[in-house]
Amino acid sequence: MTPPSSFVACILFWTVLEIFAPLGHAEEGKFGTPKGDEGTRIFKATEHPYYSSEFKLKGDRGLLIGSMSDPAPWDHLDYAGKHLNSVRGTIEIEVNEHTNTGRVVAEFVEGADQYRVMFDRFAAKAPFQDGGIATRIYEHGDSNHGDPLYPKTWLYLGGWGTATMYKNGQVIYKDYDAHFMVMERSRDPKTHEVHYPVTRTLPGGETDPAGMEIDLWVRSKEQNSKNFPPFETFIHLCWEEVTWR
After folding, report:
1. Three-state DSSP class for 49?
2. Are residues 128 and 165 in the same domain?
3. Model's pTM, two decimal places?
């Protein structure tokens, strides 16, 4: 008598299960087993076994906040987004986060003048800056990292140090403090407003994690309380299109 088809199917099921059970254990060992909540936290870059520490990015669709020729008093953070000037040019980042070396080169044109920023000396003034180049940290706002001039934002990559700026090939600012941020989008894509400072009920910063930008600040050591931020010179550029290479 031929066994019922349901019985045959049952035997086949358990046979296959026994054959592949050891494979399942092997795969589990190969790919790892979560340890408590370890799999859900955000890991430091150095906790990844194949972390290269080499970053190559490019920024397009540049904005100059204010103008290179603004007389004091000026506002070069412009939360309201009323004094943004589109500029032709790019920023290119090639750095090694582990060795704190590399360079950031920004070039843009305003009117008849061509500007270039060479940022290739990185050094930390605070522990969170990790030697001059850091990745996967929060900065600004109420993060207790950096000044509160800008909203708290997640930095995919950030750098601190000194830069030299050229105008038509001639040095105009030598060894000025500089800071770049590959960060969450800070400006409303429709109004270009930075929603900051505001009273908020959620713990995340006032930036938008659905977008990304690169910001570059170059500033003098000399102060001027009439300006915002209160420096004699504060160059602020932003690139709204980011390409990872």
Report:
1. coil
2. yes
3. 0.86
The pLDDT tens digits of the residues spanning 145-171 come to 999 999 999 999 999 999 999 999 999
Structure tokens at 138: 């929060």
Which two three-digit tokens encode residue 236? 């602020």
Number of domains in the chain: 2
Residue 139, domain extent: 45-244
pLDDT digits (tens, 9 = 90+) for 97-112: 999 999 999 999 999 9
> What is the CA 243 to chain-centroid distance, rounded?
12
| DSSP category for residue 99 | T
Q: Using an 8 Å Cβ cutoff, are 57 and 167 in contact?
A: no
- Same domain for 99 and 15: no
Same domain, 29 and 49: no
At 17, list the tokens: 């299960």
Q: Which residues pair with 161 in a beta bridge?
A: 122, 178
Amino acid at 10: C
Collapsing DSSP to helix, strand or coil, 56 comes out as strand
Q: DSSP states of 188-244 as a string?
A: -TTT-----S---SSSS-SSEEEEEEEEEEEE-SSB-TTSBSSBS-EEEEEEEEEEE
